[in-house]
């Protein structure tokens, strides 16, 4: 146990952040605070205001006041500011990548990748300021013009998770802002520092006060206040399915558009004809990258009978060489899980697996001794399971892979689709017919052929079906759909009353 004086030093070294409302960082001296901690070492990272519902309401007021002028700012100018944000993020990438790693524990290569995904998306969506395209279509009447334009919704609440602590806030903020909305961001508490640093980038390039606001604190307080505020026109939420359901129900009471991006139980199918070494690299990255804490993580490995034993033997060999440890060390393959809560939940699932008779093939425990004792490290874990067991169906969000054996393609598809989620999916095969069939057959928003289930690129839509969400997509050019209303416009220049559906066509 550390001595009290040591604790004090750590407290003082934590970066202190305020709330960001109407372009000002607010740090009331007596406000209750919470802290973020490095999950690898327990060291303090940042200290944040635990906002009240009134704080959230003030942020919405700031956003509502800023909205009219921001809506009227030409979209290319809005895009230009975002382009400058991308430049700031690019400049600060090394420092921000390190912060991602220190605050949530993904290895530094992935911490930097998180920031790169932010840069890529902000760059990409900035140019939407010069598109925001509607459509023009013919009228059934003479001298009449029909078109659609995209209009912002108003104030958007963005509620974001800790696993992509810069990328996902940027997906939501940048798309909402380029479309002319104002935003209140409520980030996951354990990565509030990453969120605050992103907001600093927006502040630095001169977004008008109130256009973007940051309110840190508990979901039950801040999140609910945002969802309940009638001035918030849409809520964009990424997180767990249980919370997502509550957000949706709460938003529905206000007839509010709620966009949900929730969990996954993503399968990788390895057919007998696959390039096995390629599949091996793929499953290691897919299952244990970000310590399995991606919505897109490969959490089920489906192996065809003919290669099952051989592939599994190779996989277990490779996992033995896997280095778990300090995520800032570039030689390390996997860091800690993100928090004590995560650790507990994952260990509970490991116990569930054991209790339901799944065969533990490797790992299955918290790592202890030396540097491990300071953090939340769990060994890469592989179970052999039956389809239908809890391990095979429920999202674990940790470094736990469930292996399932199958006979033929049809059975693989049945198993792959036999879960409540549908975010990502993958098939390894050299058979071009199966590769193309899987595009149709796999029930998921994303299908990879000969690549693992993770690694989506920002210029394409991201999202899933079934319990993964409620139909929306982030990223890609469709990212602006959740943040815009379509206005349909008819312009009649005939100088007479024309009656659609009633007049005879000439
Ligand atoms: C998530 O886990 O919520 O495709 C996002 C990927 C990343 C994004 C994951 N580009 O794995």
Characterization of this structure:
By secondary structure, this protein is α/β, with parallel strands linked by helices. It has 2 domains: 56-262 and 469-487, Aldehyde Dehydrogenase, Chain A, domain 1; 266-449, Aldehyde Dehydrogenase, Chain A, domain 2. The chain is 38% helix and 21% strand. It contains 15 helices and 22 strands. Strands 15-16-17-14-13-19-20 form a 7-stranded mixed beta sheet, with helices on both faces. Strands 10-9-8-11-12 form a 5-stranded parallel beta sheet, with helices on both faces. Strands 1-5-4 form a 3-stranded mixed beta sheet, sandwiched between helices. Helix 13 (390-393) links the parallel strand 16 (381-384) and strand 17. It is globular. The model is unreliable at 1-12 (pLDDT under 50). The structure holds 2-aminohexanedioic acid. Residues 117, 163-164, 294-296, 454-456 line the site of 2-aminohexanedioic acid (UN1).
Q: What is the global morphology? A: globular
Q: Which regions are unreliable across 5 or more consecutive residues at pLDDT < 50?
A: 1-12
Helical percentage: 25-40%
Q: What is the terminal separation in angstroms?
A: 88 Å
Strand order of the largest sheet: 15-16-17-14-13-19-20
The tally of strands reads 22
What structural category characterises the helix and strand content? alpha/beta
- Mean pLDDT, to the nearest integer, reads 96
Largest sheet: 7 strands, mixed
Q: Output the CATH topology of the largest domain.
A: Aldehyde Dehydrogenase, Chain A, domain 1
Number of structurally distinct domains: 2
CATH architecture of the largest domain: 3-Layer(aba) Sandwich
Strand content: 15-25%
The CATH homologous superfamily of the largest domain is called Aldehyde Dehydrogenase, Chain A, domain 1
Named once each, the bound ligands are:
2-aminohexanedioic acid
């Amino acid at each position: 146990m550390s001595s009290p004086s040591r604790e004090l030093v750590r407290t003082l070294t934590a970066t202190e952040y305020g709330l960001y409302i109407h372009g000002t960082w607010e740090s009331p001296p007596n406000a209750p605070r919470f802290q973020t901690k490095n999950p690898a070492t327990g060291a303090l990272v940042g200290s944040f205001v635990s906002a009240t519902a009134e704080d959230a309401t003030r942020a919405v007021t700031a956003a509502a006041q800023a909205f009219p002028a921001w809506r009227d700012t030409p979209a290319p100018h809005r895009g230009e500011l975002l382009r400058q944000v991308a430049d700031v993020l690019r400049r600060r990438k090394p420092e921000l990548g390190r912060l991602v790693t220190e605050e949530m524990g993904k290895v530094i290569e992935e911490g930097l990748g998180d920031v790169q995904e932010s840069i890529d998306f902000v760059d990409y969506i900035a140019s939407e300021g010069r598109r925001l395209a509607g459509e023009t279509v013919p009228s059934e009447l003479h001298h009449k013009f029909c078109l659609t334009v995209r209009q912002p919704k108003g104030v958007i609440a963005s509620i974001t998770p800790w696993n992509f602590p810069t990328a996902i806030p940027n997906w939501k903020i940048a798309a909402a802002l380029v479309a002319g909305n104002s935003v209140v961001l409520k980030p996951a508490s354990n990565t509030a520092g990453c969120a605050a640093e992103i907001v600093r980038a927006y502040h630095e390039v001169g977004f008008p006060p109130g256009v973007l606001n940051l309110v840190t604190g508990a979901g039950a307080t801040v999140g609910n206040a945002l969802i309940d505020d009638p001035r918030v026109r849409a809520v964009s939420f990424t997180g767990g399915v249980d919370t997502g359901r509550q957000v949706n129900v709460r938003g529905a009471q206000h007839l509010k558009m709620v966009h949900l991006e929730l969990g996954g139980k993503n399968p990788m199918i390895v057919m007998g004809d696959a390039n096995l070494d390629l599949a091996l690299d793929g499953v290691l990255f897919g299952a244990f990258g970000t310590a399995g804490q991606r919505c897109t993580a490969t959490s089920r490995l489906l192996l065809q009978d003919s290669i099952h034993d051989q592939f599994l033997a190779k996989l277990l060999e490779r996992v033995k060489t896997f280095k778990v440890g300090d995520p800032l060390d570039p030689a390390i393959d996997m860091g800690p899980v993100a928090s004590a809560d995560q650790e507990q939940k994952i260990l509970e699932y490991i116990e569930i697996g054991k209790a339901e008779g799944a065969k533990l093939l490797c790992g299955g425990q918290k790592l202890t001794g030396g540097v491990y004792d300071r953090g939340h490290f769990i060994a890469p874990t592989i179970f052999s399971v039956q389809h239908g067991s809890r391990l095979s169906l429920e999202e674990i969000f940790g470094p736990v892979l469930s292996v399932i054996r199958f006979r033929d393609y049809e059975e693989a598809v049945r198993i792959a689709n036999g879960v409540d989620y549908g975010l990502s999916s993958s098939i390894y095969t050299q058979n071009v017919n199966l590769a193309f069939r899987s595009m149709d057959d796999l029930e998921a928003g994303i299908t990879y052929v000969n690549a693992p289930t993770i690694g989506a690129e920002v210029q394409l839509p991201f999202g899933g079906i079934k319990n993964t969400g409620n139909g929306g997509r982030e990223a890609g050019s469709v990212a602006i759909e959740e943040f815009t209303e379509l206005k349909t416009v008819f312009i009649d220049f005939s100088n007479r009353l024309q009656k659609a559906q009633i007049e005879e066509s000439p």
